[in-house]
Structure of Short-chain dehydrogenase:
Amino acid sequence: MELLRDKVVLVTGASSGIGREAAKQLVEKGAIVIACARRFDRLQKLQKEVDNKERLDIIQVDMRSEDEIRTMFTKIKEQYNGVDILINNAGVSHRSPLVDGDAELWREMLEVNVLSLCICTREAIQQMQEKKVDGHIIHISSMSAHRVPPGGGVYAATKHAVKALTESLRKELRVAGSNIRITSISPALVKTALMTSYLKNEEARSMFTTTKVLDADDVVAAIIYALTQPPHVQVHDILVRSVHQIT
Ligand SMILES: NC(=O)c1ccc[n+]([C@@H]2O[C@H](COP(=O)([O-])OP(=O)(O)OC[C@H]3O[C@@H](n4cnc5c(N)ncnc54)[C@H](OP(=O)(O)O)[C@@H]3O)[C@@H](O)[C@H]2O)c1
């Protein structure tokens, strides 16, 4: 894990689920992690749980605000001279059908899952270039980038966008002669708060008792795999499902 030692890693959406687990494990592997989200109390709790507290910094940010995102990157630049690795993980999922759904829920999904990912990516690349590091960006996408569940059209559209953005960024970076890598990871069902709110409590309970879905650390294993390949290896997309899941 020497490849991760002292790397400055920004993990978005680190107050819960996959982001929280990723922040924790990356600290254990020697990285310096900046964990961000809106719920600062949860980030403080995470900081208390890790052994190397000095390696986990926390920042409160609302990913729907470009100003707040920019301020966060400025702080990172001042304190750590910029990021080496960005994990674009923050995301929301609402079941809000196309025929009668709520535009505010659609807007939130588009702003958090797509727009903030683009803004963070732009800011991170700028810092990597200034720092002269061949950094790595990981987009936490979804199996919904590869198939469309009923009622989840806008969520699937955001993740299809992430798929397009991954490929587009890879090409932009190659054309620019950059060795910054871009990886997307596409999990199926993961046992987190996002899944519980998407399925609604009763449905989630029944799903989690009848089907063994992925845990957050199954996704983190894919993140670590992608990050620890030799510098010339770019893992493009990892699709990961529980063996029990059909769709
Ligand atoms: N769970 C699944 O089945 C599944 C499957 C495929 C892909 N994914 C993807 O995995 C990623 C992580 O999801 P998860 O399952 O770990 O869900 P989660 O436990 O609900 O975590 C979502 C994270 O995103 C953050 N977030 C949401 N809105 C935000 C905002 N406006 N500003 C800042 N942070 C915000 C939340 O922090 P705050 O609320 O504290 O701000 C939280 O830390 C998402 O991109 C999701 O689409 C999940």
Summary: Residues 136 and 181 are 5 Å apart (CA to CA). The longest helix spans residues 103-131. The chain is about 50% helix and 15% strand. The domain at 2-187+215-240 is CATH 3.40.50.720 (Rossmann fold).
